[in-house]
């Protein structure tokens, strides 16, 4: 459990703390750390999160809750289907290069609506309207990669999408690639199971 003056310094320590928090959440024994007035006051002038979580916007996927952390513990970036865009890349680079966060978590989940939409569009050839199409277009390469491995169901396609997203971050951002190569940070690809509340590691870049 973290406090104002101590936080994980390595990717492995950060992942261990998140794993402990998720285990508490699964069993219903959450500690709700760092959620009091003292913690709030200590963070007025600065922040020092120990992880950045890039996850889906789904309302069932609240990062601070499922990992049982509090104010100032995690830097959270969310888009539907955890799709990458320039704002996401800038936010992740800021968390690593400015805030010195030692761990990036890519967080997908089963029954993902955005991934389902991409699968449906792939099967039918019909694209959704408006900017939903933009989301589907960014997820479709993961659907194609899943199909190459004979994966057609939504939940296992989500796993593939998490893996593809993790690899894509390293391809698109020289800053993040350098940080992982130097061991300053690592990327953990994680899928969340809605029924059990469990966050499962499905891939990683760097040492955990």
UniProtKB/TrEMBL annotation:
Q: Does the keyword Metal-binding apply?
A: yes
Which residues are Zn(2+)-binding? 56, 58, 109, 112
Pfam families referenced in this protein's UniProt entry, alphabetically = Pro_CA
E.C. designation(s): 4.2.1.1
* Cofactor(s) needed by this chain: Zn(2+)
What does the UniProt cofactor note say? Binds 1 zinc ion per subunit.
Q: Would I find Cytoplasm among this entry's keywords?
A: no
Which terms does the UniProt entry file under GO BP? carbon utilization
Please explain the role this protein plays, according to its UniProt record. Catalyzes the reversible hydration of carbon dioxide to form bicarbonate.
Protein name per its UniProtKB record: carbonic anhydrase
- Natural source organism: Zhihengliuella flava
